[in-house]
Amino acid sequence: MKKIAIMAMTAALTLAACATGPSMSEQDANNAISAAKSELNKAKNVNYAWRDTGKMIKAAEKAAKEGEYEKAVDLANEAEKQSELAQKQSREQKDAEPII
Fold it and tell me: What residue ranges do the domains of the chain occupy?
């Protein structure tokens, strides 16, 4: 009975380790930062970049430089999403007029 319990526990731990997958690499961080910069440039081209998006990209670059690749990817992905939303906001409000 103990042998079965040990085998079951070993199998469960092995599956849990596989489920988490590999951690982020420097290349993953660099790719995410590059994508975020690209979207930020698109937002800037329509004069709709949000205030803190550039700061977020700088924080992602710092995290990547310090070897915190997962944090860098998370920050870069959030910055990319903000830039996409800024572009969407630009399109939605292009015909907006002041309320008098």
Answer: 23-92
